[in-house]
Amino acid sequence: MKDLLTTADLSTADTGEVLRLAQCYAADPDHEPMLLHNRLVALHFTKPSTRTRVSTEAAVLRLGGSPTMLTGTDLQLGRGETIEDTARVLSSYAAAIIVRTSSDEDLTRFARAATVPVINALTDGHHPLQSLTDLLTLRQVFGDLDGRRIAYLGAGNNVAASLAQAAALCGVDITLATPAAYPPDPTAIATARRIAATTGSTVDWTDDPETAARGASAVYTDVWVSMGDPAEQAAARRAALTPYQVDETVLAAAAPDAVFLHCLPAHRGQEVTAEVIDGPRSVVFQQAANRQPVAQTVLTALLGGKLHGQRRDR
Ligand code: CP
Ligand code: NVA
């Protein structure tokens, strides 16, 4: 397996290995030898980022390498150089390329032309590094994921798609509650369901937030307006998503030991109340901190040939 473009690129065995190694890196950031000693890792981000950018840069430094950030305007891509030429050239300098961009198709073209690992740092369709972090956090909190169910309330976006795939790979049930107008991507959910059929878990969708939250071990939400969503539709999205806000009542319907998750950035008063995200059941800062061990793990595992992958539709 060369690249991590979607969570479903991983096999169930790969996912287990990633979570095991990430738990080691979370306990000791110097767990493995410095695989990137004197190597460059290119980050190409065309969208803003706090966590993904900085956790990845920290991960590269921990592994002995040096990160370089290349925004859309830094590269000749912005002046018409092709994705393929860019990917081939960067591959001759960098040990890996980490890309945050809008189009999944552009990312796939990038990965096909690159001769080094390409890692998806968020596209409009997927956010695999986040989803692995989410399952790592749940494993740290609960110890064992058996019999657990995640409730995702909000917009059917990139985070929801990758979370469903990661849950399925880990054999964890998930219920996504989104308005009918903003459903999760059907292809990503069909893939998650195919995986779930092999791990004995379920991937359910409803438009009823109460049904999703009832008895869940984790309640998860994300922004209502993603970076890839048209700004002119923001007001309509917020109106449709208001019934999906995670507040104390929603959390009270979940299991007594349930935790609250959010990939961040958060908007208090929109997708989550301040009482919930700043309350005792919120693990969002543990979750954010876990982005670094996951970035270290994915780099180590891809560069070290530890992942075998699974060919699937995305
Ligand atoms: N969760 C996440 O990916 O955050 P950033 O957009 O800040 O990287
Ligand atoms: N769904 C959000 C996630 C941000 C980390 C977005 O794409 O903007």
UniProtKB/TrEMBL annotation:
Residues 147-301 form the Aspartate/ornithine carbamoyltransferase Asp/Orn-binding domain. One of its GO terms (biological process) is citrulline biosynthetic process. Residues 2-140 form the Aspartate/ornithine carbamoyltransferase carbamoyl-P binding domain. One of its GO terms (molecular function) is ornithine carbamoyltransferase activity. InterPro entries: Asp/Orn_carbamoyltranf_P-bd, Asp/Orn_carbamoylTrfase, Asp/Orn_carbamoylTrfase_sf, Asp_carbamoyltransf_Asp/Orn-bd, Orn/put_carbamltrans. Keywords: Transferase. It is an enzyme of class 2 (transferase). Its EC number is 2.1.3.3. Belongs to the aspartate/ornithine carbamoyltransferase superfamily. This is Ornithine carbamoyltransferase. It comes from Amycolatopsis cihanbeyliensis. The lineage of its organism: Bacteria, Bacillati, Actinomycetota, Actinomycetes, Pseudonocardiales.
